[in-house]
Specification:
This protein is α+β, with helices and mostly antiparallel strands. The protein contains 20 helices and 28 strands. Strands 1, 2, 3, 4, 5, 6, 7, 8 and 9 form a nine-stranded mixed β-sheet that branches. Strands 16-17-18-19-28-25-24-21-22 form a nine-stranded antiparallel β-sheet, with no helix packed on it.
């Protein structure tokens, strides 16, 4: 009797920069018990993938785990898959970096487990048609995508019980279609129901292959799964059920499946990922419309297979913060390639270059670049790891290119590819990105001595799941992570706020004189939009000074903004001078503020605080304080940001908190503090008004 084949590919990953306590919890609840079950049941054959950063952590924290993996590999029970070392989205990084990411993980697996992998796990199953040539060049023979990819190419769902060949420019790679039905059956339905699915598939496709690729974390880490999978014995019962049916049902590794039968044919697939990811990538208004259409046709399977969301790159449009990181990574990659050529030509030592390239690859880790059911982009510690890595790599590249202890260079180009020119200042101590088109603000500010991204905040914007906040509970029922509606604390719907502007620094807010600190916290200042976020013209641009101007459409207001830059001891100083002229006939009164955004990450940690008027305040503090000197201190990252506002009346301070979705439910996340120096201003046509805000970056200790 021809046996039906089951290919299970299980993927273990933790974001680079995740908390050690989270890593340990995942190890105890999922990675260790899963492998222990495999050791007890040689019958079950699987493909396993671990990302490089996770493998490094396991090697350091639990070296015995590697011995267990070696036993499983030696048995032929487990086939290890490669992929990008730090789990990058391969389609949005340079091809040379994709090759280095893949080679790095393949080499690691060969050193520790005796064999280079034949297959590769594709991060988030993000596919674009050019990938086969990228993968094949790195020695990858096969990978896994979703059935969703095939459905979007017009394949019949019943035809996906086997493998296919994808090809680009003469380079082929074998594809396993991972079945969504299995992702939702395992481990949420009874083992008998899962085997019934295989029995029906075997009846219609004798000798076929059914493939499931999914996260190891769903076996123990996701809410309710540890008790279900291990304590209540789901996984043991599932294996027993498979074993009881082995006369017609076989579990095989991916390579065994490839050897057992030829591919079913060719597959030319569109840019795609799994269905949930494609929905998440849609802009919020489009996503809400998409959900309505899905609901309307929920009972029409013949229609549902033609419904698709966006593509992964949509996150770069949806979230400017993600786009900026990705374009920074691309810029740093280009700088390192240029420097590498020079260093090799000169016969210079390459150790620093190797460290910088590792930092670059680490900065391409996908988790902080997108947002779905997990925190991802909304998790400041993940963004910080990306920024820190890229800052280190770029600082090395710039120092190697300039070959001198001190340097300063200002370039004018569209760094983030949004159609508008930015001004990019780089020195040995700082990197400053100015956006003339967005209120002449500073988008990014890196303090290079300690590799700190000073701004690194998130704009509070509507998310589709915000509509569910009132339905959320604190219960811990068992269901697919995509179907749960839970909250870490009550009343989060009352905390929703949506920003008018991206969270940049040195934004000028001019607003009515009755505006107050609570209005500022609650985003109700009614500031002049053209001054705050309008396009400024570049009048002067140099490495020591930048001068920008703007005026309102009715020519009533004219604004000048200049930045000057200088080293200061072992720190760096940015001075922002603002001038405002009123062209109206009668005098006008208003309040003017210059806003800074600073994110020191851990709002409840005792080594992060705001110091004003001789008192320390928590980073969650909101209120007003007399303007003198205000300091934001992060002793852990070793940075102090000092603000000096000449002749200002007050500082207004408020935390920036997003309400985002995570695997544990809806949560409130600190994304930095907004700090505004405030001046009362009276404008007369014959006399302009001026203000100055100084920002000093320096080590905290």
């Amino acid at each position: 009797m021809t046996r039906f084949n089951l290919v299970l590919i299980v993927h273990a990953h933790q974001p680079v920069g995740n908390f050690d306590s989270v890593m340990e919890h995942s190890y105890e609840k999922s990675y260790l018990p899963f492998v222990q079950v495999l050791l007890r049941h040689p019958f079950l054959r699987v493909g396993l993938h671990y990302s490089g950063g996770l493998l490094e952590w396991i090697e350091r924290a639990h070296p015995d785990y590697f011995e267990s993996l070696r036993v499983l590999v030696k048995r032929g029970q487990v086939e290890l898959l490669g992929g990008g070392y730090y789990e990058p989205i391969l389609v949005v990084i340079p091809k040379k970096d994709a090759r280095e990411q893949t080679d790095k993980l393949s080499g690691y697996l060969a050193r520790h487990f005796g064999k280079r992998p034949r297959g590769a796990w594709l991060a988030e199953r993000v596919w674009e048609p050019q990938l086969p040539s990228v993968l094949a060049a790195a020695g990858v023979e096969y990978t896994l995508v979703d059935d969703n990819h095939f459905l979007n190419a017009g394949f019949d769902p019943a035809s996906l019980y086997g493998t296919f060949v994808a090809e680009d420019q003469g380079s082929p790679v074998i594809l396993f279609p991972g079945l969504k039905a299995l992702r939702y059956l395992i481990p949420y339905k009874s083992p008998e129901e899962v085997v019934a699915f295989f029995r029906e598939a075997a009846r219609t496709r004798p000798g076929g292959i059914a493939t499931m690729g999914d996260d190891m974390e769903k076996f123990g880490v996701w809410p309710g799964t540890f008790e279900h999978v291990y304590t209540n014995g789901w996984l043991e019962r599932f294996i027993a059920e498979l074993e009881a049916n082995q006369n017609w049902l076989a579990t095989v590794t991916p390579s065994e499946a490839i050897a057992s039968q030829e591919p079913l044919g060719r597959a030319d697939l569109p840019a795609c990922s799994y269905a949930e990811m494609m929905e998440w990538a849609l802009p919020t208004p489009a996503r809400l419309r998409f959900q309505a259409v899905e609901k309307e046709f929920a009972s029409r399977e013949d229609v549902k297979e033609f419904l698709r969301g966006g593509v992964w790159r949509g996150f770069l449009t949806k979230y400017s913060e993600s786009n900026l990181m990705q374009k920074k990574a691309t810029l740093v990659s280009r700088k390192l390639r240029d420097v590498e050529s020079k260093l090799r030509a000169e016969g210079a030592p390459l150790e620093g270059l190797r460290r910088a390239k590792t930092d670059l690859l680490c900065g391409q880790a996908n988790d902080a670049y997108w947002h779905g059911v997990f925190g991802g982009l909304y998790a400041p510690h993940l963004r910080t790891t990306v920024w820190r890595s890229l800052i280190r790599a770029e600082a090395f590249a710039d120092a190697a290119a300039h070959k001198r202890e001190k340097f300063a260079e200002l370039r004018r180009f569209d760094l983030d590819a949004d159609g508008h020119e930015e001004l990019y200042l780089t020195t040995e101590r700082a990197a400053i990105l100015i956006s003339p088109n967005d209120g002449g603000t500073v988008k990014a500010m890196d303090f290079r001595p300690n590799s700190v991204a000073v701004i690194n905040s998130m704009m509070r914007r509507p998310e589709p799941y915000h509509q569910k906040l009132g339905q959320a509970t604190g219960q811990t029922g068992f269901a697919s992570i995509h179907d749960q509606v839970r909250s870490k604390e009550p009343g989060l719907e009352k905390r929703l706020k949506y920003d008018r502007w991206p969270r940049n620094s040195f934004r000028v807010l001019m607003f009515p004189a009755e505006g107050s600190a609570p209005d500022y916290e609650n985003l109700k200042l009614n500031e002049n939009a053209e001054i705050a976020g309008g396009a400024y013209r570049v009048k002067e641009a140099g490495a020591s000074k930048v001068w920008l101007t703007a005026e309102t459409a009715d020519s009533e207001w004219k604004v000048g903004k200049s930045f000057s830059f200088a080293g200061r001891g072992d720190g760096f100083r940015v001075t922002c001078d603002v001038s405002v002229e009123h062209e109206g006939q009668a005098p006008a009164k208003a309040m003017v503020g210059i806003e800074m955004v600073v994110n020191l990450l851990a709002p409840d940690a005792t080594d992060r605080y705001i110091e004003v008027g001789g008192k320390r305040q928590s980073l969650r503090w909101a209120g007003a304080a007399p303007a003198s000197e205000l300091k934001l201190v992060d002793e852990w990252q070793n940075i102090r940001v000092t603000l000096q506002a000449e002749n200002a009346r007050d500082y207004w301070v408020a935390p920036i908190e997003t309400i985002s979705e995570s695997e544990e439910g809806f949560e409130r996340v600190y994304q930095g503090s907004q700090v505004m120096a405030v001046w009362p201003a009276e404008f007369q046509s014959e006399k302009g008004w001026k203000a100055r805000l100084i920002c000093i970056l320096e080590p905290a200790r």
